[in-house]
């Protein structure tokens, strides 16, 4: 009888050990490989080398830039001027893209902003995305964002311009962090947040359901929920798609 019980217990240990092993693997992947998951800069294939250009979308008045960061990276960017000079206003939109693809995929939006609204548009590409150098992470992307707004402030052509931050998804978190740090400068006239999230840890249950219990291991935080209340002098427009399958 004792032998039978021992045999049964040994069989019961197998699924327990397998489950523990799977949990350990998932924990390791989430902790050590989370940058690859959160910043899928190679999706879709070719995103690091094939960046659509403004002329492909009927945008003619633009510059391709490589902007240096204080920590030695080079950020690819498009600076776009309004095509309708009669409609042009002294406002520059600093665009921050989502976590996949590159700035070229967002050019149709930039065209609306410059053509229909008369704004200058600076489309900044994070480190490790498209033709930019480096590897993305939370600290690095915030350096990139500050580099972008400093570029606008230093460019003589844009002297006195009103700055509007426009962030999509991950770019919304970037915008929130940048606005909180720079609001006292007085030149940020507004912020547009499109389908952004409260924090990466709170996003995990909907974006990666199997890893919901491992969210505390996430070291890429993006604490927008805590940072947003600190912004008290900048008007904010929230845009949200009810059919968004990733950001609830």
From TrEMBL:
Report the residue ranges that make up the Serine aminopeptidase S33 domain in this protein.
91-223
Q: Which GO terms describe its cellular component?
A: membrane
Q: Gene3D superfamilies this protein is in?
A: alpha/beta hydrolase
| Keywords, sorted A to Z | Membrane, Transmembrane, Transmembrane helix
Q: Which GO terms describe its molecular function?
A: palmitoyl-(protein) hydrolase activity
Q: Which residues cross the membrane?
A: 12-32
Q: Which Pfam families match?
A: Hydrolase_4 (PF12146)
Q: Which domain of life is it from?
A: Eukaryota
User: What is the protein named?
Assistant: BEM46 family protein
Query: What organism is this sequence from?
Result: Lophium mytilinum
